[in-house]
Write a structure and sequence with these properties.
Chain A: This is ABC transporter ATP-binding protein. Chain A: Keywords: ATP-binding, Nucleotide-binding, Transport. Chain A: GO terms for molecular function: ATP binding. The complex is a heterodimer of chains A (399) and B (264). Chain A has 399 residues and is of the alpha/beta class. Helices cover 37% and strands 15% of the residues of chain A. In chain A, strands 6-7-8-3-9-10 form a six-stranded mixed β-sheet. A four-stranded antiparallel β-sheet of chain A has the order 2-1-4-5, covered by helices on one side. Chain B has 264 residues and is mainly alpha-helical. The chains are: A alpha/beta (399), B mainly alpha (264). At the A-B interface, helix 2 and helix 3 of A face helix 4 of B.
Chain lengths: 399, 264
Amino acid sequence: MGAEVVIEGLTKSFGKQAIWRDVTLTLPPGEVSVMLGPSGTGKSVFLKSMIGLLKPDRGKCVINGVDIVTCSEAKLYETRKLFGVLFQDGALFGSMNLFDNVAFPLREHTKKSEAEIKRIVFEKLELTGLQGAEKKLPGEISGGMRKRAGLARALVLDPEIILCDEPDSGLDPVRTAYLSQLLIDLNAQIDATILIVTHNINLARTVPDNLGMLFRKELVMFGPREVLLTSDEPVVEQFLNGRRLGPIGMSEEKDAAQMAREQAHADAGHSDGSSEEDVRGVVPQIEPTPGMPERAGVRRRKDRVMRILNTLPHAAQEGIIESLTDEERARYGVHSHMVPAAAQSRPRLDQPTQQMAPVQPSPRPRPVEDPPRGFQGDLSDPQVARLPDTTWKPPGGAS
Amino acid sequence: MTTRTAPANFPGAGALRETGRLFALGLDVVVNVFRRPFQTREFIQQCWFIASVTILPTALVAIPFGAIVALQLGTLIVQLGAQSFTGAASVLAIIQQAAPLVTALLVAGAGGSAVCADIGSRTIREEIDAMEVLGVSPIQRLVVPRVLACMLVAVLLNGLVSVVGVMGGYFFNVVLQGGTPGAYLASFSALAQLPDLWISELKALIFGFIAGVVASYRGLNPKGGPKGVGDAVNQSVVITFLLLFFVNFVLTAVYLTVVPAKGS
């Protein structure tokens, strides 16, 4: 199982310019998370801070009990071996061909024979669709191929944590879909914790288990995908729909006058740049390719999410329950309130969700670990909280 | 490495910070020299590269350098009436001062700038980051072989410059100034002594180290994209030159105090 990454109060600034403040989140082990954010909100800086390439001003980033921010150089290099990082442009070594690039981590860190290295490298190159290109130099191939080669290199050491910096930039939609599928398949095979930084909405809707968003120097929210996908937060809504109307401007923020002017244009019938339909809402997640093992992270996440269900906003609760099978609903003792049979629980439902509806703002976007107060279903509290066969433990402790 | 306090802000703080980082890199390099596995291949490649770009220019610079020393000293010494010591004086000047400096200037200018550009372009392509993330220290992997190569090439070139320079001085003194070959050669050992050669090689070694470390430091910290790499190369050469002359002054002063002149 992949490692858990606990980030607490991470703050980074370059000189006087703050990049983001007090980012607190937990990447649950073995799950796929996506960090969204408009260009220039410091998503890449966030990734680099996580692996200790940049020193945050304060805060903690704990992996397997090691705090990346304060640990010694030797510990840092040791911990980094758990990571596979895909950089924006692949970051291949320009003087080596693709084979040597992908073989580099193996030659550095393992005592494997050359024949075995060859086998592993070819396996990873095939996985990323690069067979036949192993003799090429990074300068001789397209950006998409460089990216895939970078991914192959990130994968050779079977990392526990995979970080991807905009895997989709410079790739066409079809290749992006293949890459998304590849990441999900990988997660199914090696159960690694994956964090993808992107601004591709389609990827964000279909790939992750958890979604977060950075904006205005803060983490707007981070939590189960359903929370962000059903959010009413103006920033999230605008971003998901790709509209000009909303708090995000061409430069990072916009003023009230600009907003009023755009609203007036929109009212006058000028398109705001989005398609008409609202793309929010929970869509089915990508499944591993048939034949792949089941993703262990999905089951763990389901247990975890059901446990904090009553702390989530109403729309997210509905989305989650909708996505469960009948069998699972029975197991967790919840039922959808969309179906008429549940109408009787409706009046009781409104009152508690009202007070939970406001999305918990940053800096503490992590759902608060209240003892479950019982969902509005028919079961009493302890029964909802008691999850059968769960291996999930509340986050907070190291690994 | 602990949580950073607010950076100090007083005039010159930036310069001090840079100096400190440069020094820290120098220390890191020294520590990493002893870390296994040693990058033999990279070291040999870098030696070959630096030597190939510096040998010819160094030799070409050494001949006129030996010549001007010989000419200048020749006229001066004739006025003082000590013609027989022309050879000795030019040998001292060339071996102790000219050879290490010429060597270092060329190692810094030709070799160091190439090293700086190479590491700088790797930095902006995120190769250095990628290497660190893969758990490989770029200092041990890239910087140490380059610095050692600079040092080795500087020491070897220093020998070359000494020989070529002395030969140039001989040629100009004997052929153009009408000096006597015998007197020129015989006076070699009159003033010069073995420690002169040692300090010359030691200087070359230290200058090579400085050239390598400064080039690597500027390469690892370029500011703002491809243009930053160009600026970094420029700065690395200038900074190296400034440091070289200062360190040369210190070493010369120490040497003259510690080692007594011959015959005194």
